[in-house]
Specification:
The chain has about 450 residues and is of the alpha/beta class. The protein has 16 helices and eight strands. The longest helix has 22 residues, at about 435-455.
Length: about 450
Amino acid sequence: MSIYEGLQPISLDEVSTYPLSSRPSKVTVKDFATPVAENSSLRDYLASLPNILAVQSIRDLAVRMRRARALSNPIIWGIGGHVIKTGLGPIMIDLMNRGFVTAIAGNGSVLVHDAEIAMAGSTSEDVDATLGVGSFGGAEETGRLLNDAARGGVRDAIGLGESLGRALLELKPQHESLSVLCAAYKARVPFTAFITIGGDIAHFHPSADGAALGATSHTDFRLLAEIVRRMNGGGVYLNVGSAVTLPEVFLKCVTLVRNLGHQLNDITTANFDFIQSYRPLTNVVRRPTADGAGRGYAITGHHELTIPLLAAELICGAGEPAITKTTDSQRLIPATGKRRVPNSDPIHPPMRTAGAQTKLRAAMSGVPPSDWNKPCPSKPAIEFTRMKVTETPEVSLVLAQPMRSRSGLRNIPPPTPVSPERKPIAAPRISASPTGTSLVSCVSARFALKNKRTAL
Protein backbone atom coordinates (compact mmCIF):
# COMPACT_ATOMS: atom_id res chain seq x y z
CA MET A 1 0.00 0.00 0.00
CA SER A 2 1.48 3.32 -1.08
CA ILE A 3 1.70 6.21 1.34
CA TYR A 4 0.75 8.65 -1.45
CA GLU A 5 -2.96 9.20 -0.89
CA GLY A 6 -5.08 9.88 -3.95
CA LEU A 7 -2.16 9.28 -6.33
CA GLN A 8 -2.06 6.25 -8.60
CA PRO A 9 0.25 5.43 -11.56
CA ILE A 10 -1.37 6.42 -14.82
CA SER A 11 -3.25 3.67 -16.63
CA LEU A 12 -1.93 2.39 -19.93
CA ASP A 13 -5.09 0.52 -20.93
CA GLU A 14 -6.31 3.19 -23.36
CA VAL A 15 -2.98 3.88 -25.10
CA SER A 16 -3.42 3.97 -28.91
CA THR A 17 -1.08 1.85 -31.01
CA TYR A 18 -0.64 1.25 -34.72
CA PRO A 19 0.76 -1.48 -36.99
CA LEU A 20 4.55 -1.23 -37.31
CA SER A 21 4.24 -1.67 -41.09
CA SER A 22 2.25 1.55 -41.34
CA ARG A 23 4.95 3.73 -39.76
CA PRO A 24 7.45 5.68 -41.87
CA SER A 25 11.03 5.17 -40.62
CA LYS A 26 14.22 7.08 -41.27
CA VAL A 27 16.40 3.96 -41.46
CA THR A 28 15.60 0.95 -43.67
CA VAL A 29 17.58 -2.12 -44.64
CA LYS A 30 18.13 -0.79 -48.16
CA ASP A 31 20.43 1.82 -46.60
CA PHE A 32 22.57 -0.73 -44.74
CA ALA A 33 26.21 -1.42 -45.52
CA THR A 34 27.25 -4.53 -47.39
CA PRO A 35 30.47 -6.46 -46.74
CA VAL A 36 33.33 -6.09 -49.20
CA ALA A 37 35.14 -9.02 -50.76
CA GLU A 38 38.86 -9.55 -51.30
CA ASN A 39 38.56 -8.63 -54.96
CA SER A 40 36.25 -5.61 -54.45
CA SER A 41 37.09 -2.46 -56.40
CA LEU A 42 37.05 1.09 -55.06
CA ARG A 43 33.70 1.60 -56.75
CA ASP A 44 32.42 -1.53 -55.00
CA TYR A 45 33.67 -0.22 -51.67
CA LEU A 46 31.96 3.14 -52.10
CA ALA A 47 28.69 1.44 -53.03
CA SER A 48 28.98 -0.83 -49.98
CA LEU A 49 28.94 2.03 -47.46
CA PRO A 50 25.73 2.66 -45.52
CA ASN A 51 23.65 5.43 -47.06
CA ILE A 52 23.21 7.06 -43.66
CA LEU A 53 24.37 10.30 -41.97
CA ALA A 54 27.91 11.32 -42.99
CA VAL A 55 28.11 8.96 -45.98
CA GLN A 56 24.82 10.31 -47.29
CA SER A 57 26.08 13.87 -46.78
CA ILE A 58 29.28 13.15 -48.71
CA ARG A 59 27.29 11.59 -51.55
CA ASP A 60 24.91 14.54 -51.68
CA LEU A 61 27.82 16.98 -51.59
CA ALA A 62 29.56 15.14 -54.43
CA VAL A 63 26.40 15.42 -56.54
CA ARG A 64 26.33 19.17 -55.96
CA MET A 65 30.01 19.51 -56.80
CA ARG A 66 29.51 17.64 -60.07
CA ARG A 67 26.63 19.98 -60.83
CA ALA A 68 28.79 23.05 -60.10
CA ARG A 69 31.47 21.75 -62.46
CA ALA A 70 28.88 21.10 -65.17
CA LEU A 71 27.54 24.66 -64.81
CA SER A 72 31.05 26.21 -64.65
CA ASN A 73 30.26 27.57 -61.18
CA PRO A 74 33.06 28.08 -58.65
CA ILE A 75 34.11 25.26 -56.33
CA ILE A 76 36.10 27.08 -53.66
CA TRP A 77 38.22 25.25 -51.10
CA GLY A 78 38.98 27.19 -47.92
CA ILE A 79 41.80 25.25 -46.27
CA GLY A 80 43.88 25.41 -43.12
CA GLY A 81 47.46 24.25 -42.66
CA HIS A 82 46.36 20.86 -41.36
CA VAL A 83 45.24 19.92 -44.88
CA ILE A 84 48.83 20.30 -46.10
CA LYS A 85 50.40 18.71 -43.01
CA THR A 86 48.29 15.57 -43.36
CA GLY A 87 49.59 14.97 -46.87
CA LEU A 88 46.47 15.90 -48.84
CA GLY A 89 48.24 18.17 -51.33
CA PRO A 90 48.41 15.54 -54.11
CA ILE A 91 44.68 14.84 -53.76
CA MET A 92 43.84 18.55 -54.00
CA ILE A 93 46.08 18.89 -57.07
CA ASP A 94 44.37 15.94 -58.74
CA LEU A 95 40.91 17.37 -57.99
CA MET A 96 42.12 20.70 -59.36
CA ASN A 97 43.11 19.03 -62.62
CA ARG A 98 39.67 17.37 -62.77
CA GLY A 99 37.81 20.66 -62.29
CA PHE A 100 36.68 20.05 -58.71
CA VAL A 101 38.91 22.81 -57.29
CA THR A 102 38.49 26.12 -59.12
CA ALA A 103 39.71 28.47 -56.36
CA ILE A 104 41.59 28.15 -53.08
CA ALA A 105 41.56 30.32 -49.96
CA GLY A 106 44.27 29.54 -47.41
CA ASN A 107 45.35 30.97 -44.08
CA GLY A 108 48.94 31.84 -43.21
CA SER A 109 49.90 28.36 -42.06
CA VAL A 110 49.02 26.96 -45.50
CA LEU A 111 51.62 29.25 -47.05
CA VAL A 112 54.29 28.17 -44.57
CA HIS A 113 53.72 24.43 -44.80
CA ASP A 114 53.19 24.25 -48.56
CA ALA A 115 56.28 26.36 -49.26
CA GLU A 116 58.43 24.18 -46.98
CA ILE A 117 57.08 21.01 -48.62
CA ALA A 118 58.04 22.39 -52.03
CA MET A 119 61.52 23.52 -50.97
CA ALA A 120 62.57 20.81 -48.49
CA GLY A 121 60.05 17.99 -48.79
CA SER A 122 59.26 18.28 -45.06
CA THR A 123 57.46 20.62 -42.68
CA SER A 124 55.93 20.96 -39.19
CA GLU A 125 58.75 21.36 -36.72
CA ASP A 126 58.63 20.06 -33.15
CA VAL A 127 57.42 23.11 -31.24
CA ASP A 128 57.92 21.57 -27.80
CA ALA A 129 61.55 20.81 -28.56
CA THR A 130 62.41 24.22 -30.01
CA LEU A 131 60.26 26.72 -28.11
CA GLY A 132 62.31 26.54 -24.92
CA VAL A 133 65.52 27.67 -26.59
CA GLY A 134 63.76 30.26 -28.77
CA SER A 135 64.49 28.66 -32.13
CA PHE A 136 60.89 27.83 -33.06
CA GLY A 137 59.90 29.43 -36.37
CA GLY A 138 63.38 30.68 -37.21
CA ALA A 139 63.75 29.03 -40.63
CA GLU A 140 65.56 31.54 -42.87
CA GLU A 141 64.27 30.39 -46.26
CA THR A 142 60.60 30.25 -45.24
CA GLY A 143 60.46 33.72 -43.71
CA ARG A 144 62.43 35.40 -46.50
CA LEU A 145 60.38 33.78 -49.27
CA LEU A 146 57.02 34.84 -47.81
CA ASN A 147 58.05 38.44 -47.14
CA ASP A 148 59.82 38.90 -50.47
CA ALA A 149 56.69 37.56 -52.18
CA ALA A 150 54.54 40.07 -50.30
CA ARG A 151 56.71 42.97 -51.47
CA GLY A 152 56.60 41.63 -55.01
CA GLY A 153 52.83 41.45 -54.81
CA VAL A 154 52.59 45.09 -53.78
CA ARG A 155 54.89 46.10 -56.61
CA ASP A 156 52.83 44.25 -59.22
CA ALA A 157 49.40 44.90 -57.66
CA ILE A 158 48.58 41.21 -57.18
CA GLY A 159 47.49 39.18 -54.17
CA LEU A 160 49.70 37.35 -51.71
CA GLY A 161 48.68 33.87 -52.87
CA GLU A 162 49.47 34.56 -56.51
CA SER A 163 52.71 36.32 -55.69
CA LEU A 164 53.93 33.49 -53.45
CA GLY A 165 53.09 30.86 -56.06
CA ARG A 166 55.11 32.79 -58.61
CA ALA A 167 58.07 33.29 -56.27
CA LEU A 168 58.07 29.63 -55.29
CA LEU A 169 58.11 28.44 -58.90
CA GLU A 170 61.01 30.77 -59.69
CA LEU A 171 63.09 28.80 -57.18
CA LYS A 172 62.47 25.59 -59.17
CA PRO A 173 61.92 23.67 -55.92
CA GLN A 174 62.72 19.97 -55.78
CA HIS A 175 59.19 18.97 -54.75
CA GLU A 176 57.26 21.33 -56.98
CA SER A 177 54.86 18.57 -58.07
CA LEU A 178 53.58 18.21 -54.48
CA SER A 179 52.99 21.92 -53.88
CA VAL A 180 49.41 23.22 -54.06
CA LEU A 181 50.73 26.76 -54.49
CA CYS A 182 52.83 25.77 -57.50
CA ALA A 183 50.05 23.71 -59.07
CA ALA A 184 47.50 26.48 -58.65
CA TYR A 185 49.79 29.09 -60.18
CA LYS A 186 50.61 26.89 -63.20
CA ALA A 187 46.92 26.08 -63.72
CA ARG A 188 45.91 29.73 -63.17
CA VAL A 189 43.58 28.66 -60.40
CA PRO A 190 43.12 31.66 -58.06
CA PHE A 191 44.93 31.09 -54.75
CA THR A 192 44.02 33.70 -52.14
CA ALA A 193 45.79 34.02 -48.79
CA PHE A 194 44.54 35.50 -45.51
CA ILE A 195 47.05 36.15 -42.76
CA THR A 196 46.72 37.14 -39.14
CA ILE A 197 49.62 39.48 -38.38
CA GLY A 198 51.70 37.90 -35.64
CA GLY A 199 50.17 34.48 -36.15
CA ASP A 200 52.79 33.00 -38.50
CA ILE A 201 56.52 32.43 -38.17
CA ALA A 202 57.30 34.68 -41.15
CA HIS A 203 56.02 37.69 -39.23
CA PHE A 204 59.07 37.92 -36.96
CA HIS A 205 61.63 37.29 -39.67
CA PRO A 206 64.17 40.15 -40.07
CA SER A 207 62.73 40.89 -43.52
CA ALA A 208 59.10 41.02 -42.31
CA ASP A 209 57.03 43.76 -43.96
CA GLY A 210 53.65 44.15 -42.26
CA ALA A 211 52.42 46.73 -44.74
CA ALA A 212 53.13 44.49 -47.72
CA LEU A 213 51.59 41.44 -46.05
CA GLY A 214 48.45 43.39 -45.18
CA ALA A 215 48.08 45.03 -48.59
CA THR A 216 48.44 41.80 -50.58
CA SER A 217 46.11 39.93 -48.23
CA HIS A 218 43.48 42.63 -48.68
CA THR A 219 43.83 42.34 -52.46
CA ASP A 220 43.13 38.64 -52.04
CA PHE A 221 40.03 39.41 -49.98
CA ARG A 222 38.59 41.47 -52.81
CA LEU A 223 39.51 38.77 -55.30
CA LEU A 224 37.81 36.06 -53.22
CA ALA A 225 34.70 38.22 -52.87
CA GLU A 226 34.42 38.37 -56.67
CA ILE A 227 34.70 34.58 -56.88
CA VAL A 228 32.05 34.21 -54.16
CA ARG A 229 29.80 36.51 -56.21
CA ARG A 230 30.02 34.01 -59.06
CA MET A 231 28.76 31.21 -56.78
CA ASN A 232 25.19 32.35 -57.40
CA GLY A 233 23.24 29.61 -59.13
CA GLY A 234 25.08 26.47 -58.04
CA GLY A 235 28.51 27.31 -56.59
CA VAL A 236 30.16 25.39 -53.75
CA TYR A 237 32.33 26.50 -50.82
CA LEU A 238 34.18 23.95 -48.67
CA ASN A 239 35.78 24.92 -45.37
CA VAL A 240 38.41 22.32 -44.52
CA GLY A 241 40.41 22.72 -41.35
CA SER A 242 40.05 26.42 -40.55
CA ALA A 243 38.15 27.09 -37.34
CA VAL A 244 38.33 30.90 -37.22
CA THR A 245 40.04 32.85 -40.01
CA LEU A 246 38.45 31.48 -43.18
CA PRO A 247 34.88 31.18 -41.81
CA GLU A 248 35.09 34.86 -40.88
CA VAL A 249 36.55 35.81 -44.27
CA PHE A 250 33.91 33.84 -46.16
CA LEU A 251 31.08 35.45 -44.19
CA LYS A 252 32.44 38.92 -44.98
CA CYS A 253 32.65 38.03 -48.66
CA VAL A 254 29.00 36.92 -48.57
CA THR A 255 27.78 40.13 -46.97
CA LEU A 256 29.94 42.26 -49.31
CA VAL A 257 28.44 40.57 -52.37
CA ARG A 258 24.90 41.08 -51.12
CA ASN A 259 25.67 44.64 -49.98
CA LEU A 260 26.59 45.48 -53.58
CA GLY A 261 23.19 44.25 -54.75
CA HIS A 262 24.17 40.86 -56.18
CA GLN A 263 22.10 37.71 -55.73
CA LEU A 264 23.71 34.80 -53.92
CA ASN A 265 21.29 31.87 -53.99
CA ASP A 266 21.35 28.16 -54.76
CA ILE A 267 24.76 27.74 -53.14
CA THR A 268 26.24 24.80 -51.27
CA THR A 269 28.56 25.03 -48.26
CA ALA A 270 30.25 22.37 -46.19
CA ASN A 271 32.54 22.19 -43.18
CA PHE A 272 35.02 19.33 -42.79
CA ASP A 273 36.72 19.02 -39.42
CA PHE A 274 37.32 16.51 -36.64
CA ILE A 275 35.25 18.72 -34.31
CA GLN A 276 32.43 21.05 -35.29
CA SER A 277 33.23 24.55 -33.97
CA TYR A 278 30.99 27.58 -33.63
CA ARG A 279 32.32 29.74 -36.47
CA PRO A 280 32.41 27.14 -39.25
CA LEU A 281 28.93 25.89 -38.35
CA THR A 282 27.51 29.40 -38.08
CA ASN A 283 29.44 31.39 -40.69
CA VAL A 284 29.84 28.70 -43.35
CA VAL A 285 27.10 26.10 -42.95
CA ARG A 286 24.13 27.99 -41.53
CA ARG A 287 24.11 31.76 -42.13
CA PRO A 288 25.06 31.99 -45.85
CA THR A 289 22.48 29.33 -46.78
CA ALA A 290 19.66 30.61 -44.56
CA ASP A 291 16.21 31.57 -45.86
CA GLY A 292 16.36 29.12 -48.75
CA ALA A 293 19.63 30.46 -50.19
CA GLY A 294 21.21 27.01 -50.33
CA ARG A 295 22.20 23.88 -48.43
CA GLY A 296 24.90 23.41 -45.81
CA TYR A 297 26.65 20.23 -44.63
CA ALA A 298 28.72 19.47 -41.53
CA ILE A 299 30.94 16.43 -41.94
CA THR A 300 32.90 15.37 -38.88
CA GLY A 301 36.08 13.33 -39.11
CA HIS A 302 39.82 13.47 -39.65
CA HIS A 303 40.81 15.18 -42.88
CA GLU A 304 43.16 12.37 -43.86
CA LEU A 305 40.07 10.13 -44.01
CA THR A 306 37.18 12.34 -45.09
CA ILE A 307 38.88 14.25 -47.93
CA PRO A 308 40.17 11.11 -49.72
CA LEU A 309 36.69 9.63 -49.29
CA LEU A 310 35.12 12.73 -50.87
CA ALA A 311 37.65 12.58 -53.72
CA ALA A 312 36.90 8.91 -54.30
CA GLU A 313 33.17 9.62 -54.37
CA LEU A 314 33.68 12.45 -56.85
CA ILE A 315 35.77 10.29 -59.18
CA CYS A 316 34.41 6.76 -58.73
CA GLY A 317 31.08 7.12 -56.95
CA ALA A 318 27.85 6.15 -58.65
CA GLY A 319 26.21 9.43 -57.72
CA GLU A 320 23.04 10.50 -59.46
CA PRO A 321 22.10 13.08 -62.10
CA ALA A 322 22.52 16.49 -60.54
CA ILE A 323 20.25 18.16 -63.08
CA THR A 324 17.13 16.48 -64.43
CA LYS A 325 16.02 19.20 -66.84
CA THR A 326 17.38 22.58 -67.79
CA THR A 327 15.92 25.66 -69.41
CA ASP A 328 17.50 28.99 -70.25
CA SER A 329 17.22 31.64 -67.58
CA GLN A 330 17.76 35.38 -67.79
CA ARG A 331 20.99 35.24 -65.76
CA LEU A 332 24.31 35.31 -67.61
CA ILE A 333 27.26 33.10 -66.76
CA PRO A 334 29.76 35.55 -65.15
CA ALA A 335 32.77 34.14 -66.96
CA THR A 336 31.36 34.66 -70.45
CA GLY A 337 28.66 37.30 -70.19
CA LYS A 338 26.82 35.69 -73.13
CA ARG A 339 25.72 32.16 -72.29
CA ARG A 340 22.66 31.66 -70.15
CA VAL A 341 22.82 29.70 -66.92
CA PRO A 342 20.34 26.80 -66.99
CA ASN A 343 17.62 26.58 -64.41
CA SER A 344 17.67 23.18 -62.74
CA ASP A 345 14.80 21.20 -61.36
CA PRO A 346 15.23 19.93 -57.78
CA ILE A 347 17.38 16.83 -57.43
CA HIS A 348 14.61 15.20 -55.42
CA PRO A 349 10.91 15.76 -56.23
CA PRO A 350 8.80 17.64 -53.67
CA MET A 351 7.38 15.52 -50.86
CA ARG A 352 3.93 15.63 -49.30
CA THR A 353 4.49 16.57 -45.71
CA ALA A 354 1.50 14.96 -44.05
CA GLY A 355 0.83 11.78 -46.00
CA ALA A 356 2.52 9.43 -43.58
CA GLN A 357 0.86 11.05 -40.58
CA THR A 358 -2.51 10.51 -42.25
CA LYS A 359 -1.82 6.77 -42.41
CA LEU A 360 -0.65 6.73 -38.82
CA ARG A 361 -3.79 8.44 -37.56
CA ALA A 362 -5.96 6.10 -39.61
CA ALA A 363 -4.17 3.02 -38.31
CA MET A 364 -4.39 4.22 -34.70
CA SER A 365 -8.10 4.94 -35.13
CA GLY A 366 -8.88 1.47 -36.44
CA VAL A 367 -9.54 2.56 -40.04
CA PRO A 368 -8.99 -0.34 -42.48
CA PRO A 369 -5.95 -0.06 -44.82
CA SER A 370 -8.21 0.32 -47.87
CA ASP A 371 -9.38 3.69 -46.50
CA TRP A 372 -5.98 5.05 -45.42
CA ASN A 373 -5.57 7.32 -48.45
CA LYS A 374 -8.96 8.97 -48.02
CA PRO A 375 -8.91 12.54 -46.68
CA CYS A 376 -9.44 12.91 -42.97
CA PRO A 377 -9.22 15.83 -40.53
CA SER A 378 -5.71 16.67 -39.40
CA LYS A 379 -4.30 18.47 -36.44
CA PRO A 380 -1.97 21.41 -37.22
CA ALA A 381 0.53 20.32 -34.59
CA ILE A 382 0.97 16.94 -36.26
CA GLU A 383 1.19 18.54 -39.71
CA PHE A 384 3.90 20.95 -38.58
CA THR A 385 5.85 18.17 -36.88
CA ARG A 386 5.91 16.25 -40.15
CA MET A 387 6.94 19.37 -42.05
CA LYS A 388 9.90 19.88 -39.75
CA VAL A 389 11.27 16.38 -40.21
CA THR A 390 10.75 16.22 -43.99
CA GLU A 391 13.93 16.76 -45.96
CA THR A 392 15.61 18.50 -43.00
CA PRO A 393 19.40 18.89 -43.37
CA GLU A 394 21.39 17.00 -40.80
CA VAL A 395 23.24 20.12 -39.70
CA SER A 396 20.03 21.97 -38.91
CA LEU A 397 19.67 19.75 -35.87
CA VAL A 398 22.64 21.55 -34.31
CA LEU A 399 21.97 25.05 -33.08
CA ALA A 400 25.20 26.87 -32.46
CA GLN A 401 23.45 29.57 -30.46
CA PRO A 402 19.96 29.75 -28.96
CA MET A 403 17.57 32.25 -30.46
CA ARG A 404 16.02 34.67 -28.00
CA SER A 405 13.35 37.25 -28.53
CA ARG A 406 14.15 40.65 -27.17
CA SER A 407 12.06 43.68 -26.42
CA GLY A 408 12.97 47.27 -27.07
CA LEU A 409 14.56 48.79 -30.17
CA ARG A 410 14.77 46.36 -33.10
CA ASN A 411 16.35 48.23 -36.02
CA ILE A 412 20.14 48.63 -36.04
CA PRO A 413 21.38 51.57 -38.17
CA PRO A 414 23.49 50.45 -41.16
CA PRO A 415 27.11 51.65 -41.47
CA THR A 416 27.69 55.05 -43.05
CA PRO A 417 28.56 54.60 -46.76
CA VAL A 418 31.97 55.68 -48.02
CA SER A 419 30.49 57.73 -50.86
CA PRO A 420 27.03 58.87 -49.74
CA GLU A 421 26.66 61.36 -52.55
CA ARG A 422 27.12 58.55 -55.09
CA LYS A 423 25.17 55.82 -53.35
CA PRO A 424 23.01 57.35 -50.62
CA ILE A 425 21.45 55.17 -47.94
CA ALA A 426 18.28 56.38 -46.31
CA ALA A 427 18.52 57.12 -42.61
CA PRO A 428 17.10 54.28 -40.50
CA ARG A 429 13.78 54.69 -38.76
CA ILE A 430 14.11 53.39 -35.23
CA SER A 431 10.94 51.79 -33.99
CA ALA A 432 10.15 50.13 -30.72
CA SER A 433 8.56 46.72 -30.33
CA PRO A 434 5.00 46.49 -28.99
CA THR A 435 6.36 45.18 -25.70
CA GLY A 436 8.82 48.05 -25.40
CA THR A 437 6.15 50.62 -26.32
CA SER A 438 3.77 49.28 -23.70
CA LEU A 439 6.47 49.40 -21.07
CA VAL A 440 7.44 52.99 -21.90
CA SER A 441 3.79 54.06 -21.95
CA CYS A 442 3.15 52.40 -18.60
CA VAL A 443 6.18 54.02 -16.97
CA SER A 444 5.30 57.41 -18.47
CA ALA A 445 1.73 57.19 -17.18
CA ARG A 446 2.90 56.32 -13.67
CA PHE A 447 5.29 59.28 -13.56
CA ALA A 448 2.59 61.61 -14.89
CA LEU A 449 0.14 60.44 -12.21
CA LYS A 450 2.79 60.82 -9.50
CA ASN A 451 3.60 64.38 -10.62
CA LYS A 452 -0.11 65.27 -10.65
CA ARG A 453 -0.58 64.03 -7.13
CA THR A 454 2.47 65.96 -5.97
CA ALA A 455 1.13 69.14 -7.53
CA LEU A 456 -2.21 68.70 -5.72
